[in-house]
Amino acid sequence: MSAMDAVQFSPNPSHTFPVGAVMVVGGGIAGMQAALDLADQGFKVYLVEQKSAIGGHMAQLDKTFPTNDCAMCSISPRLVEVGRHLNIEVLTDTEVLDVSGEAGDFSVRLLRKPRYVDVQKCVGCGDCAQVCPVSIPDPYEEGLKQRKAIYRLYSQAVPAAFAIEKRGVAPCRDACPAGQRAQGYISLIAQGRYREALRVIKEDNPFPSVCGRTCHHPCEGSCTRALVDQPVSIMALKRFVVDYALAYGREKVDPAARTRPEWVAVVGAGPAGLTAAHDLVRMGYGVTVYEALPVPGGMMRVGIPAHRLPKGVLQQDIDDILALGVILKTNTPIKDPTALLKQGYHAVCLATGIASSDHSLGLEGEDAQGVISAATFLRKVNLGDVVHIGDRVAVIGGGITALDAAAVARRLGASEVHLVLDRPRGELPAYSWEVAAVEAEGIHIREGMTAVRILAEAGKVVGVELAKTGKGMTTDIRGHRRPVIIPGSEFRLDADTVIATVGQFSDLDFLDAPYRELTADPKTLASQIPGIFVVGGRKTGAAFIVDAIALGHRVARSIHRYLQGEPLEPPAAHAFPVAKISRQELAEKVKGGELQLRPRVEPTLLPMQERVTSFREVVLGLTEHQARAEASRCLQCGVCSECLACVYACGTGAIDHEMVAQEETRRVGAIILAPGYQAYRAELSEEYGYGRYPNVVTALQFERLLSASGPSMGRVLRPSDGKTPQRIAFLQCVGSRDQSHDYCSAVCCMYATKEAIIAKEHHPELDIQVFLMDLRAFSKGYWAYAERARQQYGVQYRRCRVSALRQDPLSQDLILEYQDEQGERHKEVFNLVVLSVGMEVSEPVRQLGRRLGIELDEYGFCHTVQFNPVETSRPGIYAVGPFREPKDIPESVVEASGAAAAAAARLSAARFSLTTTRQFPPERDVRGEPPRLGVFVCHCGSNIAGFVDVPAVTEYAASLPNVVHAESNLYTCSQDSIQHITEVIRERGLNRVVVASCSPLTHAPLFQDSLRAAGLNPYLFEMANIRNHCSWVHSDDCPAATRKAQELVRMAVARATLLQPQATVQVSIQRAALVVGGGPAGITAALSLADAGFSVSLIEKEPQLGGNLRQIFVPLPEGASQPQELLRHLVVRVRSHERITLHLGAQVLRTSGFRGNFSTTIQLADGQQIEIAHGVAILATGAQEYRGNEYGYRSHPDILTQSEFEGLLSSSTGEQLPQRVAMILCVGPAERFCSRICCTVALKNALALKQRKPEAEIVVLYRDLRAYGFKERLYTQARSLGVTFIRYHPEQPPVVETQGDGLTVRAWDASLKRAFELRPQLLVLSMPAVPSPETRHLAALFKVPVDADGFFQEAHVKLRPVDFATDGVFMAGSAHYPKLLDETMAQAQAAAARAARLLSRDTLPAGGRVAVVEAERCTGCLTCVRICPFNVPRISAELTGAGGILGAAYIEPSVCQGCGQCAAECPAKAIQLMHYTDAQLQAMVRALVRSGLEFIPVHRLSSGG
Amino acid sequence: MAEQNLQIVAYACEHCAYAAADLAGALRMQYPPEIKIVLLPCTGKLDVLLALQALEDGVDGVMVAGCLPGDCHYQDGNVNARRRVEHLQQILQQIGLQPQRVQMFNMSSAMAGQFVAAATQMAEQILALGHNPLRDLPPERNL
Fold first, then answer.
1. According to a count of CB atoms within 10 Å of the terminal CB, is the N or C end of chain B lower?
2. Are A177 and A634 in contact (CB under 8 A)?
3. Does A375 touch chain B (CB under 8 A)?
4. What pTM was estimated for this model as a whole?
5. How far apart are CA A194 and CA A202, in angstroms?
6. CA A71, A73, A74, A76 torsion: positive or negative?
7. Which of A67, A708, A1473 sits opposite B113 (nearest CB)?
8. d(Cα A991, Cα A619) in Å, to the nearest integer?
9. Of A1075, A1094, A1084, A1173, whose CA–CA distance to A1134 is shortest?
């Protein structure tokens, strides 16, 4: 836990119960709604989202049904609102681990996953993504497009900060001791970015030239590509980069900045010492390297022969290290390291590596002249010493050094070189190809032999006695471990020189005696003497160069900690998981054609004759073509390759690849779960071929294809060939209503209809067929929408399930087989098939539910408790949206508001206890001042500056009239620039500010806060959008872009000069609510508001409460409690609530006022009239059952409505109930609109009858059975209990005949295509719910609209489902649309939450961008009154208009929405829209047209503002 | 086109068209630089007089870009704007100025491509028409 957390969560002395904070889990549309409703009501909100941005599925949608509104238009302003809300903390990349505590005071443990980008620092400019070399399928585009490993979920995402996707550390990097990010440079090589590749290599490895040639490359050993064919030639690729750099001119290395005063001495200029020196000098220390030999490089120089590592190549690496500022002193052996400390060095690193003195061979005769150790031999040759070896050379040993020695002996001219191996070549610590290469050079390899003794004559070698090795080892008389020899196998090999490999050890014997026994702590590499560090001591020596490099890094970090006074022990490193791709996953990629088998490119070798005659390098590098081809074989295991290209590109230092996951705890009073759904994974339904047939797509993919901002810019192109299809089939109920899903996903019929309509709009010639069982168009406006699809757009709905789907292998068309309603079999060809996938609860969400201990059903959907449709089984935790039951956006939004109300009621005592308000200094009055403008021009990294000459624009801005300050910023929106603007305003006395950068839609509020912080009114601000509207869209014409940027700045300056401060006044409000309607909706809304602490007047026209609930007796099954019990419970609560004033038998007579201040007169039961002052009104006047005379209703006692039947069921005994019952659905007005609840009620009542009288025969005549969501289970249950369902065609409705006592129903079975006749004892008609007469009456009083069917019309179908366009008036219950009981209650809670947003404040702001009437010009013509969509303007008798006539228009600023339509329409030009005055707008145009400076308007105070 | 230095002012509503233009930028689409976007709360704020003054001041074209029909944030501001644009075109016809100098387009905020198409179309048409003849009149006429 970080220090900040500790501060935040230490016990708070003012801690009260409950906690005034709420956690909302899920940042989709429902989560955002709940967060906004709560934050606006005075609660701190933590909005937890597991992805890197909020927005959820809705952000992926093109349009929303049934209005075809653009989804992004709807959601985008809300995203910005959430992102900027002071009291909403958006926690992205976060998961809830667990919850402890109880309602009112929960502790939520969170896992904050690393984003690798600092959200505070990232300005979202996207420079990083431009340079990222890794592309992967874009999940937002449903895999139809590629995106980079560093990404923003979508253009409008909030937060706008980028994020990096990492699957883990790539196996190659994990395998490398030095942590070389191989995937990083490989990805850059694949793109031809070699210089950047070299830069990446050098991040981890200062010896790229060496390691590109002589590394033992464990990276290749763990390369995932080996599971496909062969590992990537990683070492060869590294060498290619170095060679390329050498060939095309390397970049000069600049000295590292000396930022620290300390000096470090490094003893030994081998790989470890030089790496340590390299790292330390880059950290800012002064470093001197002491080397005993005349040349630096250590074993790299003296141990490796030139034909494997050319000296120039090594020198190149060393030169780069020295160029950083490392001082090198050769020929300077050190014997006393403490002397260096005394001399003034603050630390000494002994990196002396392998000792230079030879150990004993342990062989008889080893002292003879002509016996030499391989290491010494190589050193001498490498240092240029003359070595006489004669013609015949025997090399004993099988390691790399022995191979090198043999090869060097050959090159020195020995005609006969024998390499004696004590084991078979396959068991050597060298690669077989290395052995083979040596053999190819003519060296004799003698396997399974060991030297027994050196044969010498006159002290000079003449040969060596060899013997065959047996199994096992033995210890000879000198104590050396030796292979067992086979007796009698000895023989003599003549030789002039015997070169033997001996074990090479690290030791410190070269030091003065007291220091020889220095040992290093294996973790810290610190010795017993403070300040002296040892690499290469007896225990810490390295076997391979790359190990030595790794040690060099380690010791440098250790020395750094020592010098900084930190604990030497490194902090426990976070274990990054290694990115693994399974064999199976790879096999699938190969099968799916995503991956092709391709062998690796092997480097070519020098021709043989050239090899043995020179020390020229044997292995030749890859060509550029080969390198790029080889690099493209990389599988990008880690996704992010950690190439750091983004780090270099980022101008704000926002990227941190070392971020790790952290746990945090937050205290909250309530939790709202809005985790949303996951689309059914269509590949699981193999019969539809998704994943195998390219032209079978999911509905979400199709949605992206339709989107104007999608992968095909809104053109419907099929994936296989990019051609526009002619025929498209939608297959419904994929992952719904099947064996594994017993529910209906509720949205698919409508989204398929929507997608069909949009597709037809884009391509009218398309033939679109929707294959479905029932068309579930059950909600407001849905049925009309589907009818429009059918009639206007020609979309065909076919009622059948497809029995088979095959692909034509040539055309990749899809062949569908199906049986139509008449039973005829068909086979049809479609070019594209769209699968309407259903909704599921994802496994992570199910696990979350389990961890939280809330009840879930077997599918993972969340159970909620009776009487509170959004509360889970754990008090204080609420669930909304498809997590409860599949549902559409409006219902999810309603539930989110409802949950907000429920949480607010529980926590009302803590309202405003944890929220903060932004404090700004008092505003300076600038009205008398001449304009002093400041212009800030943004580079936006390279986004603007890459195409627009920013200095020229800045200079130009400075030359404009009234501009007293102009400057450019790298990122004007970065934290420091924001503060800087405030400072400049103060210092330069600015009174207008122009920022020339990006879009005001996203950034204006940010900059306006800079103004407010400096005491300037936020309206004195203007933006010039020189990025989105200039540099980005004119990137192919830089001079034009610069010219346009200047023009845009000129226009902005012109307008800014005329800007005026706009006062926002606070209007006090009546903190009381009026609720009209005493049914379940009104009661619930009233209780919800009263519980939240507000006074409520509840008006009901009837003498008793309950509304339609009084007629509901049969509960919906599945453990529901009795409706009448619920009603009694509600009535008791209303009557006993201290904050509810109940008026029964009362009527609303008139109302006046506006949001926050209404006054409504009601007439009470006794005729008395009273006036109620209230700030909000909730209209919940309900609906009533239609009672027409269709189907003989009222003409026969045995024809009942469903409601009457329900009464009969509740009042009759089993014997009294009828035996044969027929039901007809969709009666009367329901032929024109779907009343939503009738199907469910019919099913409910049918089941109730079956329960009471199992032998009853029930026939249901229906058109479409709209058992949406879990109501499908009632349908299934009814069928399994023997209820008969017969579909009739709308054009052939049933006919009812009454003869005497008997009833006859004749109908035509649309499915079986036959007529039939029923003689039921009882006929039950599903009469739809229609609006109550009060609805229209109230609509007129409150000036709110109703729709064509007479229901209340909401402000926005999707996003404001309980608001009226008129502010402060809300709706609930069936007056909005017919609803089931739990839906009604959720909506009533939602209305309460929306109302509470207003009521929880003392005042409401008014003013700003509002229309203002200049009364003396007003003629009272009513034009504004007529055009205002919100009914705001009125003629006020108190005002005097033009010509002194009494009465002029008045526009109440607290309700004006600021669209300016009245101002544009006013014939007398008496109305101005503040902040968009005619003068300001005209000034912009004049500034545009007149390129001179005369355009800038003279500052006029009277110009209005 | 650049040689002519044509100027087209594009009034864009903040809910849809302006955002569509923002998105066009984010997607790095290209359109002629003659288009200069002016932000309005709603195209319903477009004033006939404002557009006429713009032409009188010398802009070569006036483009109006609002939400899709039925999608207006203020219910029917875009419908009112279209009505005014048609009225403007009539006025231009009457005074002998090409009515195509004023045009209305509708798009949602996701329809970056449509914005670019509209801007391109507008610019091409204005290019074909050439300079607004009123531009060369002396500025004093406005005083």
1. C
2. no
3. no
4. 0.87
5. 12
6. positive
7. A708
8. 70
9. A1084
Cis peptide before A1103 (omega within 30 of 0): no
Tell me: the pLDDT tens digits for A193-235? 999 999 999 989 999 989 999 888 999 999 999 999 999 999 9
Q: Does B18 touch chain A (CB under 8 A)?
A: yes
Distance (Å, whole) CA A140 – CA A619 = 46
Instruction: Compute CA A706 distance to the chain's CA centroid, rounded to the nearest angstrom.
Output: 22
A55 touches chain B (CB under 8 A): no
Alpha carbon A1282 to its chain's center: 49
| Distance of residue B100 Cα from the nearest chain A Cα, in angstroms | 19
Mean pLDDT across B28-47 = 95
* Residue A1388 backbone zone (phi > 0: left; psi -120 to 50: alpha; other: beta): alpha
- Cis ω for the linkage preceding A337 (within 30 of 0): no
Host H or E run for residue A770: strand A767-772
What is the phi/psi pair of residue A1288, to 5°? -110, 155
For residue A1279, the SS3 value is helix
Kindly report the CA angle at B19 between B17 and B23, in degrees rounded to 5?
115
Looking only at Cα atoms, what is the longest distance across chain A? 142
Q: Please report the pLDDT score of residue A612 as a whole number.
A: 81
Between the two ends of chain A, the Cα-to-Cα distance in Å is 52
CA–CA separation, A18 vs A105, rounded Å? 6
For residue A921, count other CB atoms closer than 10 A to its CB: 11
Q: How confident is the model at residue A620 (pLDDT cuts 50, 70, 90)?
A: confident
Peptide bond into A159 cis (omega under 30): yes
- CB-based burial, A1235-1254: b 16+ in 10 Å, e otherwise: bbbbbbbbbbbbbbbbeebe
Strands of the A1021-1024 sheet, one edge to the other: A963-969, A933-938, A992-996, A1021-1024
Is the CB of residue A848 less than 8 Å from the CB of residue A25?
A: yes
Chain B CA closest to residue A1047: B36
The DSSP call for residue A1028 is I
B40/A1001 CB distance under 8 A: no
CA distances from A1147 to A72, A1130, A1341, A1486 (A): 42, 22, 12, 58
Residue numbers of A between 136 and 195 with CB closer than 8 Å to B = 155-156
B105: three-class secondary structure by DSSP: strand
Q: How confident is the model at residue A442 (pLDDT cuts 50, 70, 90)?
A: confident
pLDDT digits (tens, 9 = 90+) for A1111-1149: 988 887 655 668 899 999 999 999 999 999 999 999 999
Q: How far is CA A677 from CA A75, A140, A440, A959, in A?
A: 18, 15, 65, 56
- In B, which residues are within 8 Å of A1481 by CB distance? 38, 50
CA–CA dist A1273, A982 (Å, integer): 62
Q: Could you give the CA distance from residue A771 to residue A749 in angstroms, rounded to a whole number?
A: 10
Q: Which of A73, A1430, A1488 sits opposite B9 (nearest CB)?
A: A1488
Q: Which amino acid is it at A1118?
A: E
- Map out the domains of chain B as residue ranges: 2-132
Q: What tokens does A813 get?
A: 């068309």
Phi, psi of A1178 (to 5 degrees): -115, 120
Between chains, do A709 and B44 touch, taking CB under 8 Å as contact?
Answer: no
Determine the residue among A63, A65, A162, A709 to mutate to test chain B binding: the one whose Cβ has the most chain B Cβ atoms within 10 Å: A709
Residues of B in contact with A1490 (CB under 8 A): 57-58, 139
Which CATH code fits B2-132?
A: 3.40.50
With a CB cutoff of 8 Å and minimum separation 6, the contacts of A515 are A335, A336, A337, A338, A508
What is the three-class DSSP state of B37? strand
